[in-house]
Specification:
With 458 residues, this protein is of the alpha/beta class. It has 14 helices and 18 strands. Helix content is 39%, strand content 21%. Strands 3-2-1-4-5-6-7-8-9 form a 9-stranded mixed sheet, sandwiched between helices. Strands 14-11-10-15-18-17-16 form a 7-stranded mixed sheet, sandwiched between helices. A two-stranded antiparallel ribbon has the order 12-13. Helix 2 (66-79) packs parallel to helix 3, helix 3 packs parallel to helix 4 and helix 5 crosses helix 6 (163-176).
Length: 458
């Protein structure tokens, strides 16, 4: 077989997945193709096996006949302008050798190998002769190998019990397969954060720390990660940048994971896409809310620290995913004025309120602070709004000492002591802290309407 020669690349990279088929859609080539599309690539797919599986596990694996696999690979690679390829479940020795033969001949610019060995419920996805063939024929031609903890243990030959073991394992694994970068994913270790460790050819080590998302629906995590990494490399990112981008993508995908069926639901790459699509809508929503607020004589709502109004992306992770008004909204004559247009990352203060509220209800994506007034609270209750309070005097010293923690603690306390999600959270202040009312809602127009009603202005 001769390598496909093509004059012009498409406007978006063409990437190939060689892996098993998951009829439930959560993993395998289905998850790979979804990830490629979400990230702006065009995916081709050669299935190595048909599986019988759903959210509860893998029940049967039927390898694709080697002759058929051989023909699929030949016809795709001689015609389709594949920039990068990834392998997933390769089942057995014959399939491993046939894939290695074509990939070694074609030589895509990048080959990412996800050394899949077992399903989440323990079903064997690569038999022992297949694993031996993988080590001999596939791993030596890989550009990147992405083992999870269990797979890293098989490659290292020892248990990986903690982060120090990971650091040792990744270096020693890279020494065995010197051509490849090794990415050991740390999701199976405990802790508030996840650490992925990369060892580049030559021994340079990088650690990527990402937020741990508590979500039981993680089916297809390894598939989606390796597919994302393949696509980012095909787009021209360097290895470390591509790994960081893939880690961020996976954090969002895990956050968006959802239940289908009675078992473990899939991670959701569409969370990444929805965040990107919603960016413009978030800014537009804040502009619409500003128009409503500024059209009223609402100077009485403005506290000494001024107002800010924020709106988060649907799968917000950090304060950079929450848009607000830079310089805040200030009182001017009988109304309000603003310094500039809403932007992302403009207010960590209001962002922390929203992010904390979203942990209890992801639909609560907007918040606004207004002046504390007993009459406002009385009117809020009369309107049927849920009102919750926290007391700054009860704030633990270790919270006070940590920058940015007070509001997270306060909002958490208020929500914990309230049935359902409150519309209003207030505190009566403390030494050096102005008493404040915070209004919560699903979008900024709703929040502004609540604030105006609480102030008796609407």
């Amino acid at each position: 077989m001769t390598k496909c020669r093509y004059k012009d690349r498409p406007l978006f990279p063409v990437v190939l997945t060689i892996a098993g088929s998951d009829p439930s859609g959560g993993a395998g080539i289905q998850q790979d193709l979804r990830t490629f599309s979400v990230l702006g690539g065009f995916g081709a797919a050669v299935p190595t096996a048909l599986t019988v599986q759903n959210s509860q596990g893998v029940f049967e694996v039927m390898p694709v006949p080697t002759e058929n696999l051989d023909l699929q690979l030949q016809k795709v690679l001689e015609d389709v302008p594949v920039v990068a390829a990834k392998t997933g479940m390769l089942v057995n020795e014959e399939i491993v050798k046939k894939c290695a033969e074509h990939l070694d001949t074609f030589k895509p610019e990048f080959l990412v190998v996800d050394p899949v060995m077992y399903s989440k419920n323990g079903h064997v996805l690569l038999d022992t002769p297949g694993w031996e063939a993988m080590k001999e024929f596939i791993l030596p031609i890989a550009d990147v190998i992405t083992p999870n903890m269990e797979e890293a243990e098989a490659m290292w030959g020892r248990p990986v019990k903690d982060l120090n073991d990971m650091r040792s394992a990744v270096v020693e694994i890279q020494e065995k397969w010197k051509k490849a970068a090794i990415v050991v994913k740390g999701g199976h270790l405990g802790g508030d954060t996840v650490v992925d460790i990369i060892c580049l050819p030559g021994g340079e080590v990088h650690e990527i720390t990402r937020q741990r998302i508590e979500n039981p629906h993680t089916h297809g995590t390894g598939c989606a990660y390796s597919a994302a990494l393949t696509l980012f490399l095909a787009k021209g990112m360097d290895m470390v940048a591509a790994c960081k981008a893939a880690a961020h993508f996976m954090t969002l995908s895990i956050k968006g994971g959802f239940k289908i069926g009675d078992g473990t639901g899939p991670v959701n790459p569409l969370a990444y896409l929805r965040n990107e699509v919603e960016r413009g809508k978030v800014l537009h929503g804040l502009e619409a809310a500003w128009e409503l607020l500024s059209s009223h004589k609402c100077r009485a709502l403005v506290p000494e620290v001024q107002i800010n109004l924020g709106y988060a992306l649907p799968y917000a992770l950090t304060t950079e995913d929450v848009a607000a008004f830079p310089g805040r909204i200030v009182g001017l004559r009988e109304g309000v004025a603003r310094v500039g247009c809403p932007t992302f990352g403009a207010s960590s203060h209001v962002a922390r309120i929203i992010l904390t509220a979203m942990e209890s209800d992801p639909a609560i994506r907007s918040a606004m602070n207004i002046r504390y007034d007993e009459s406002y609270l009385k009117r809020a209750k009369a309107l049927g709004y849920g009102v919750a309070e926290f007391t700054r005097a009860e704030e633990p010293d270790h919270v006070k000492e940590k920058e940015g923690s007070s509001l997270v603690w306060g909002v958490t306390q208020a929500m914990r002591n309230h049935t359902g999600i409150p519309d209003v959270i207030f505190d009566t202040g403390d030494i050096g802290k102005e008493p404040i009312i915070r209004v919560l809602g699903c979008n900024p127009t709703e929040v502004v309407e609540k604030a105006l009603r609480i102030g008796g202005m609407l």
